Inverse folding.
């Protein structure tokens, strides 16, 4: 039983994913493995949002590492993540924070008008997590 009256206000996982690497290729101590292989993904906090807007931290990768470790607490050292998990984790964090769809505006080659597109991030995430490496 939790005696903390604020416990219901703590961050809750928004979704669970399996990493494309299946948790392999992480050095010892870099990943706290789960029994099922499903890892909880939390939405970004206001601090994470500010971190992603800090130019110096973005240039050297520290912002990305900090946000991954904040939103996926099972990853203890994101510097040691296998590269095939990074895209899947960033897409999952985006889904947990902003929802399953992302709007993109682009001008197709040879066209003069901008076109709006909606990307279903769940399909993109499924492509990564279901790939065989």
């Amino acid at each position: 039983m939790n005696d903390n009256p604020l416990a219901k206000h703590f961050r809750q996982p928004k979704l669970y994913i399996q990493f494309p690497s299946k948790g392999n290729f992480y050095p010892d101590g870099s990943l706290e493995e789960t029994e099922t292989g499903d890892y909880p993904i939390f939405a970004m906090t206001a601090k994470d949002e500010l971190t992603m807007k800090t130019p110096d931290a973005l240039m050297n990768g520290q912002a990305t590492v900090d946000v991954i470790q904040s939103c996926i607490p099972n990853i203890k050292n994101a510097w040691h993540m296998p590269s095939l998990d990074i895209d899947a984790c960033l897409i999952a964090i985006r889904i947990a924070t902003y929802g399953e769809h992302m709007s993109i505006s682009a001008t197709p080659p040879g066209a003069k008008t901008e076109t709006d597109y909606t990307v279903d991030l769940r399909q993109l995430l499924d492509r990564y997590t279901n790939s065989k490496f």
